[in-house]
Amino acid sequence: MALTKRIIPCLDIKDGRVVKGTNFLGLRDAGDPVELASRYNEQGADEVVFLDITASRENRGALIDVIERAADELFLPLTVGGGVSSINDMQALLRAGADKVSVNTSGIKNPDLIREGAEKFGNQCIVSAVDVRRNNQLTDGVTPVEMSDGSRCWYEVVIYGGTRPTGIDAVKWAKEVESLGAGEILLTSMETDGVKQGFDIPITSKIAAEVNVPVIASGGVGTFEHFYDGFVYGRADACLAASVFHFGEMTVLDVKKYLADKGVPVRI
User: Fold this and answer.
1) According to the UniProt entry, what is the EC number of this protein (predicted)?
2) What is the DSSP letter of 143?
3) Using CB atoms within 10 A as the burial measure, which of 56, 122, 132, 231 is most buried?
């Protein structure tokens, strides 16, 4: 029997509120995180991701409060990320009720954090969030990715909310975080984030083919077909979306019914 594909609403949190932008910019308020997460719980979401997008120390208390409230009220797995820079951060989030912690910028700066977290809490608790952007200048040492128009490019890992390039090849980094112990990869393409033109299929399918851990496609959902494309052509194990759910354009249940009718295995 095929493993069921997961639908995961993502809640970007700033100062205790859910916000949503485009290409990581232009944030607007989308509501209370626990209220939204509760709605998705009722709709049949497989998981919910909370991301503290400002991740400054003064906001950590607000995020912990959100997780504690969500853990008390919801009955689905919670993944939490943003500003996770130490084992103590991971432990605090897991104690507050998170099931998984997501590591992004701090994993680039200190790859041992991924390994240490996996060793202490288990691979299943560690998600490596990988934010990428296209780079059309192919050079030695990068992995070419075939685009739909026949051109080739490579994808560079970016950090600090997409504001800083790293020079690191996304495919190679995905394989490295797997070797370090990450149990899952949350892949977001800056080009498609919030644009609603679909997931970045070339890099999603490339990384999914290169690693043996689940890949979550993120960034770009605007239609039901985009979920289908993410699973079938992007080879993703899960698809994550935000604004289409937050602003009532579609429900998780509607998406799952659509996918089931198209032959994609989902839990309804």
Assistant:
1) 4.3.2.10
2) -
3) 132
**pLDDT score at 62:** 63
Coil, strand or helix at 113:
helix
Per residue in 26-63, pLDDT (tens digit) is 566 778 899 999 999 999 999 999 988 776 455 566 68
SS3 140: coil
Rounded CA separation 52/139 (Å): 34
Which of the pair, 110 or 75, is modelled with greater confidence? 110
> DSSP state, 2?
P
Q: Which is catalytic among the residues 12, 52, 200, 229?
A: 12
CA-to-CA distance for 82 and 49, rounded, in angstroms?
A: 11
Name the pTM for this structure: 0.93
- Of 9, 6, 18, 5, which is closest to residue 251 (Cα–Cα)? 9
A 10 A CB-CB count for 221 gives 29
Say how many CA atoms lie within 13 Å of 183 toward its Cβ.
15
Structure tokens at 122: 């288990």
Question: Could you report the per-residue pLDDT of 148-172, keeping only the tens digit for each?
Answer: 889 999 999 998 877 889 999 999 9
Residue 213: DSSP 8-state: S
The torsion angle over the Cα atoms of residues 199, 183, 20 and 230, rounded to 10 degrees, is: 20
Q: Single out the catalytic residue among 46, 52, 89, 131.
A: 131
User: Catalytic residue at 131?
Assistant: yes
104 and 129 Cβ atoms separated by less than 8 Å? yes
